[in-house]
Amino acid sequence: MRHSIFSLFGWCALTVLGFAQAPPPGATVNTSGTAGDYKSSTAEGGADRVFNVNSDSVDMENGTMQWKGTTMNLGNSRAVRARFERYLAAPTDNGDMKRYVALLDQIQFLLSAQSVNQDNYYRNQQEAFNLLFKAAEYDIDANNSLTIASQVQKIWVMKQEFRQIEITKNQMETLRKVQEGIVINRADNIEAANDARADGGSKAKPLGKSSGGTTELGYKVKDEARTQAQILAKDAEMLALGLKAKIEFQSQMVSFLMARRYRHSLITSSFYRVLFKGGSQNIVVGAKEVKEFFPISDFVPTLESFDMLSREAIKDTSKGMQTVDDLVKQGELYGAFERLQETFFLGEFEPVVMSYPQEKKREMLALWKDLRELQRLGDERDLGSVEGYVNKVRGRARDFPGAPILSKVTNAMNASNMSLLSAKGAALAGDNAKAEAALERAAKIWPQNPGVKDFATQVVSRQDTLAQKIPEFDRLMTESKWRDIYNKKLEYALALAQDKERSEKLRKVVNRVGELDANIQKASVLATQNNPYLAWDVIVEVYKTESDDIVLAKTRSDIAPLVANYAQLIGHAEKLEKDGAEAAALTAWLSAQDLNPASPACGAAVKRLAKSVAESAVIRSTGTVPAPPPEPAAGDDVPVPAKK
Amino acid sequence: MSKINPLFFALGIPVVVIVILVAIIAPRMGGGGKFAELTPFSVDAYRKDWATLQGNSYRLDCQVEQQLAFVEGRGRVLAVKPIEKDPTRPSGRIPIFVPAGSADSFEVGQRFKCKLRVTRDLLVVEALERF
After folding, report:
1. Which one of B50, B72, B121 makes the best mutation probe of the A interface by having the most chain A beta carbons within 10 Å?
2. Which ipTM was obtained for this model?
3. Cα–Cα distance between A589 and A609 in angstroms, integer?
4. Which domains, ranges and CATH numbers included, belong to chain B?
5. How many Å lie between the alpha carbon of B127 and the closest alpha carbon of chain A?
């Protein structure tokens, strides 16, 4: 039962938040422009497998979105919801979207391979750079073009530094070569001096300085080595600068992609391709992230991988918004809402999403609020209110799948009520532990079940009433007020559940009054069927034991006028019998039987009295009146005929 | 010798026979016959206050309705229906006690003239005649 309930609410949450699958946009890979690299069969096959659009979905709870089989983190779930709600509520961005998009396309074109050549290499860069500032004037751009511009400028500055370092390095190389020449010259001189000394050694000149200039040579070598080290340091500096610039640029490109600023990512990529040499085109930053989109073991991420992802996202967003429009036109607002939600999180900053008409967004916002309220009701397990809200949402969006929700809600309600019944049964049986567990289960399934509240109130008040009910029950028993006990039988049953002796008494009273009521009912039915004499018989019979019962007395008084003579005869007969006038009583009973031949009471009385009269007739007849023949001796029953 | 008109005989003889028959049957039909000297039993008076009738003897013409009880050696209690002069006002059944000494048989529907004695509240048959 617990599992089914959890799955119910999980299902409700999923349904309410509209985590349905995205409509299948075209899954073809865009091979236009610079995407010629993807014409290899391996890449196409990989793309087919990778772009499984059925895996697209938004998970509001975790703030993630599945796209192309990869989870994209959207941030804090509450923030994600708030962002979507803000989007729906916010006015549509002003500005000429078409011009903005055209500007971005123009920048990309200027930097594309088909446009850049030897002649316009720098001019196109500068033109594209200038257009970035124009694009930044649009609100929708959020100054991201300026970020790209500053990044590009940084590369240009770095290139300037490169040139400066190169000059310095060349100067140092020149210096090093001079130093090298000096060292060689000095070394040659020393060698020549040594040779000369060796030739004139036989002349036995006095010992003196064997060779000169070695100290100077040592210093010159040291100078040359230092210059060499400085050149290497400059090389390292250039390498570091280049690497840093490359990493920074790639980081910016990945940031744009992950921030779903696909167009800016494409522009950054285009600039990168132009600004950096062919040896720097391999991906260093974000390779791991891009590889996740391509679950192929030997896949090598390239700039084109980024471009392809961005273009695919732009295309999916565009297709998603077309689907939203179509669904709205067909009146399927819920489906449209789901598609808009997915499309928003995929291409939140795409112009086509940002320029969606405000009146349609307002409509979606109203539906969103209803869905959130429905989700809240589900979270709080307020099952009683779910139906109303489901109908409300259905009224707003006729394609909302409310039937499964209602079905599961009904099942949950039934489960809660059954647990409640079990709790009541256990409580009546005195099994408090079981009752408590069942009540807890019922409350967990449906906390606002009115039955749970009532039962809880009963249980709480039971302890209070127990002290009152027991003395009251004892008093009524003493006073034989069965009807009063019967009328409060449920209260007494609860109060006396633990008291076996009193419970047994209560059971007997309930049976007694139940039987009495059945007889009263029987009498009423007979009277209604124009058979008042038999009804009266029933009343008379019951009245012998239950003369204090108010309901019986009322029924008796209702029927009595219909059977006045009959009742009078019976009363008279009973009185005569009581006085010992059995024969006269028998006469009265016979008269009553004449009125009500089917009466079992009359039949029984007549039979009983007749037998009694027959048996006592001899005794009665003794005295002054002529006596019948005396009781014959045994075996002398038949009168003996007179002897001749 | 005077001649008697034969018509006289033709009419006279049947008339005489009829007169004789009427003389025999009329007393019976009119409550006469056996026990004719006794006062007819009043069912209403008995029902109203049997004590005032105690010790008295009455005549009752009745029809057997049912045998209510039979005790060997004691007698039987019969429920009989009095034969009323005014059939529009039936007085209902009454019980009578026939002591065991009576040799008569009683079948439902038989009619009897009875001599009754009110013994306390009991109507005891002292003599009876079927008719």
Report:
1. B121
2. 0.80
3. 9
4. 43-130 (2.40.50.140)
5. 11
